[in-house]
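Good day; I would like, with your permission, to put a structural problem before you. A protein sequence and the structure tokens that stand for its backbone fold form the material at issue. Thank you for your consideration; the sequence and its tokens are set out here:
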Amino acid sequence: MSLKARLRGAGSRQWAAWIATTVRRLAAFGRRVLRDFMANRGILLAGGVGYNVLLSVVPFFAVCTAVLSTVVDQARLVTTVRTQTQFLAPGYAGIVADAVEEFLETPAVLGVISFLVLLFFSSLAFRMLEDAIAIIFHRHKPSQHRSLWFSAILPYLYVVALSLGILTLTVVGAVVDALSGRLISVLGMEWTLERAPTAVLYVFGFLGIALLFASVYKVLPVVKVSLRRALVGGFVAAALWELTLQAVMYYFDNISLVNAIYGSFATVIVVLLSLELGAVILLLGAQVIAELERSAEAGLPWYRAPEDRPPPHGSP
């Protein structure tokens, strides 16, 4: 056998060994994450987070649309809400958007009540999420506490940030919609932007969810989390959520009997299940970051847990 063939064979074996080692490390790390996630009662926590978020979804979209309609066309705002609620209620976004439109036609006193409901339930939702994140991280850190005032205003800061996000999506959608009738010539070929508004809203919605997840990983834990890990965790969680969303949409469109079983409650069931799945993905991402932080603080590579490190020489 020639020298070149032997080198090629040696390189192939090295690549195969590296792939096998990486797969084993990823599998071990995944088992470690799932073990600690279940030990932290992650599914139970996700159910609590999903339920509390559900109570504030419609009031949030309704109040946000009512406030922003003073500066942006109401019909375009409802279109944006309809597109974004597809992330929360696959196949049932139109029903949620119709509920928001009905709210906009109600008297002002109901608007005030809905605003108070939004403040109350958003506080509960973020408090539940903050406690869930604290449970994910508490096993690996000494007890730490943040300012009471910061915890009190944090839900409302997120409400404002989400409202600005909807405003941004609406403005971007309006700009792209204005250009949708034009033709673009690229390399002698003409392309139409007829479907550009929907695609742009979808892409910006995905980026918004990724940044929302990243902000949760960066802000909510009482421990310090690096911005890089928070961003990576946010985009990975958003990608997992998108894959889960597509699977859920296929299930409800082709397999599920939820309409036959639950009737008029089907929309609530779908939204609740979607929010709970999203909460599971969000908390799993937090668990991944917590495990990475543990390994880094112990001076170990990411795939090794501190408890797997052999005891110091001479220790009992």
